[in-house]
Amino acid sequence: MMSEGYKKTDDICDDVCGQARSAFSMSRVKCFFRGFDLKAIILLFVVLPVCIFSMYLHGQKISYFLRPLWESPPKPFHEIPHYYDENVSMENLCKLHSWKIRESPRRVYDAILFSNEIDILTIRWNELYPYVTQFVLLESNSTFTGIPKKLHFAKNRDKFKFIEPRLTYGMIGGRFKKGENPFIEEAYQRVALDQLLKIAGIEDDDLLIMSDVDEIPSAHTINLLRWCDDIPPILHLQLRNYLYSFEFYTDNKSWRASVHRYETGKTRYAHYRQSDYLLSDAGWHCSFCFRLINEFIFKMKAYSHYDRVRFSHYLDPKRIQDVICKGADLFDMLPEEYTFKDIIGKMGPIPHSHSAVHLPAYILNNADKYKFLLPGNCIRSEEESG
Ligand SMILES: *[C@@H]1O[C@H](CO)[C@@H](O)[C@H](O)[C@H]1NC(C)=O
Ligand SMILES: *[C@@H]1O[C@H](CO)[C@@H](O)[C@H](O)[C@H]1NC(C)=O
Ligand SMILES: *[C@@H]1O[C@H](CO)[C@@H](O)[C@H](O)[C@H]1NC(C)=O
């Protein structure tokens, strides 16, 4: 972009002096001095500010677009084929995966760090309810970015009576360190979650689900893993990525969620890559799937990548509503991909989907309450009514 700027001033000089640019001669030097005022003025007051301003606006996009040059894709996973139909016996399902069936299922722990995603939490716990022994939830009065937050779960706890007998709840005070990398507060909270799991009574070979609230394994996936022997000790789950609602399917590249066969002293709660095994088509990852515009604003501020909110107008409710309905990007960023083909293929808004097949059953059974997650319902209220 800079060089383009300079070229333009050269062209202007050529126009002014009417000379070929290749010939470097005295007359060109003269031209330089004759044109000096004009050229300096243009450079100082037009080209330079335009360059700096557009770097400021698009610097992030440029670096994202050039990602294939500075970052190579992560090592591919060993993808395990996944077999399922509701009318196939568990014995047969285990066999299809070359696993043996157990005499009794493993116990299952679902552990999460909670921020404010009450709706998604309701859907998650209803989906997993039949197969989870203990729901372990930790919340803090600080966001990862060190902003004080309400204890949203504690405030809404009466909405989750159905899991109360299986709930281990923990609260941890934030450290409120100004200007610290948000990943440090996040790591601190994950360590506390390890403690809470011990309090909840987790034992060796129990299954432990490590995932964000919005990464929801499908119930039948967890049922398979608790019934079959010989599953890998650590298995990542490939989830279908959605944005804002199930109307916007982006890809099936979500892999951060994982299921562990717990090993005392060894298993640590984490949200990064911990093994090479990935079970295909194992659930849903619905990012920014909020009911209220206010929740979008909160999440954008509380997010570990707060630096993405580069301009305050990003938090304007009208703009957010517009972005949601279009399936565009809240932070006006380019897709995080590793090849030019993928980046270009994914630029622009996400296409609308009209399918609500194979979604968490609880959404369809309570469609009135969760309409905002279904295709064709992108309009959000700003605040809770009534
Ligand atoms: C399920 O399997 C049973 C027995 O194998 C069969 O009778 C029944 O028709 C099947 N149901 C569906 C919906 O395929
Ligand atoms: C956060 O919680 C801790 C522990 O309960 C408490 O000491 C602290 O005052 C709280 N801070 C805020 C800002 O709510
Ligand atoms: C994941 O997406 C790729 C590319 O769209 C597709 O080829 C593949 O079949 C998908 N896998 C699953 C399990 O849906």
UniProtKB/TrEMBL annotation:
Keywords: Membrane, Transmembrane, Transmembrane helix
A Pfam family matched in the record: Glyco_transf_17
Transmembrane segments: 36-57
PANTHER family named in the record: BETA-1,4-MANNOSYL-GLYCOPROTEIN 4-BETA-N-ACETYLGLUCOSAMINYLTRANSFERASE-LIKE ISOFORM X1, BETA-1,4-MANNOSYL-GLYCOPROTEIN BETA-1,4-N-ACETYLGLUCOSAMINYL-TRANSFERASE
Protein name, per record: Uncharacterized protein LOC116194393
GO molecular function, one term: beta-1,4-mannosylglycoprotein 4-beta-N-acetylglucosaminyltransferase activity
InterPro entries: Glyco_trans_17
GO BP field: N-acetylglucosamine metabolic process
GO (cellular component) term, any one: membrane
